[in-house]
Amino acid sequence: MVAIDSYAGGDGRLSPLSTPSATRAVLEAHGIGTKYTLGQNFLVNDDVLKKIIALAEVGEDDRILEVGPGIGTLTIALLKHAAGVVAIERDPDLPAVLADTLHPWREKFALVEKDALDVTRDDIVSVASTMVEPGGDAGCLDRASSAANETAQWAVSQSEDCLSESRYRVAVPQEELRPSLPSKLVANLPYAVAATVVLDYFESFPFLDSATIMVQKEVADRMAAAVGTKNYGAYTVKLGLYAEPVGRFAVGPGNFFPPPRVDSAVIRLNRRVPLMADGAPASPEVIAAAALMADAAFTNRRKTIANSCKTYFSGRGPISLGAGPSAQEGAPGIVLPDGAAIAEHLPAIFDAAAIDPRRRGETLTQQEFLALGAALLKVTAA
């Protein structure tokens, strides 16, 4: 096992793990390998790490959300620049690795052991509260190795415990807790779930102001696609209701261990407030309805929105719209009529939105989809 404090670096690298040999050494020291089924391709280029930090504009006051920290390569770079990192990891073999590689920054790190697609706001709040201000308790990761010591006694109340999904318990006086939610998502995302994670997190976690993420090049193309292009589709529209691309750069397969079979890109997305035609901010209900209309309009990409929407809604039962993060917290969404009834109302919906039903989905702007969403709510409520 490598001495834990050696990961603090000193060789001029932003992350001492950003080489194939260092990555291989950590994996071998812990008796594990990369798992293809989890999409594990570890970044091994320090210059790419520097570009990610720069694009994300990570500062000393920032708290970061990271999905898929792996062995901690990017995490170390983030911890050297930010106030703290909350990471989400589903691989049960990696918390012990992170306890080792991130030990020098243990007071600034908290871990959620959960599938990224199942994480809730409460999960993040719970572990974020375990990271105290500088000078406070050493934090959850400091107890990672102690968690294996079954003789440890924790004579503290539930309210005083710092309890994370990773089973690490830390006694932290209540007055020292300084819960602060992360405002930036910065991650080398598992490619199989990257698109879903980004859209879901912008929708469900309003405390996130930006996302700077490593994704497959084709996914980045969809995220940044312009109206009328081949990559512009329902996903582009729905993501655009929450965020807009502000920068990106390409990353080749040789920058990973093991190399993936696809090209990658890092893209930054900033949260945006979508506006209606009159300049007023769109309500969460209208945004949810616009996303539904985007799915409907792209059912058959080469057909008119009239035909695509009719195909999408016909035969469907009642449709429930979640209104953003409130839906995740248990608040009831909006229940629309069944799909067949909506299909009958489509001419009135297109008329109310002042949109020609002979157009195709790829020609509609995000603002026009907002108009369709507002029209859907208005017509079906009448």
Description of the structure:
This protein is of the alpha/beta class. It contains 14 helices and 13 strands. It folds into two domains: 4-271, 3-Layer(aba) Sandwich (Rossmann fold); 284-381, Helicase, Ruva Protein, domain 3, CATH 1.10.8.
List keywords for this structure.
seven-stranded mixed sheet, 13 strands, alpha/beta, single chain, two-stranded antiparallel ribbon, 14 helices, 382 residues, Rossmann fold, elongated, Helicase, Ruva Protein, domain 3, 2 domains, 17% strand
Task: Estimate the mean pLDDT confidence.
Answer: 84
CATH topology of the largest domain: Rossmann fold
CATH hierarchy: architecture of the largest domain: 3-Layer(aba) Sandwich
Query: What is the number of helical segments per DSSP (H or I, 4+ residues)?
Result: 14
Would you report the number of β strands? 13
User: What percent of residues adopt helix (DSSP H or I)?
Assistant: 25-40%
- Main beta sheet, described? 7 strands, mixed
- Quick one: CATH class of the largest domain? Alpha Beta
- Structurally, the number of domains stands at 2
Secondary-structure element string: HEHEHEHEHHEEEHEHHEEEHHEHEHH
> How much of the polypeptide forms β-strand, as a percent range?
15-25%
| Straight-line distance between termini | 68 Å
Radius of gyration: 23 Å
| Unreliable stretches | 135-179, 325-331
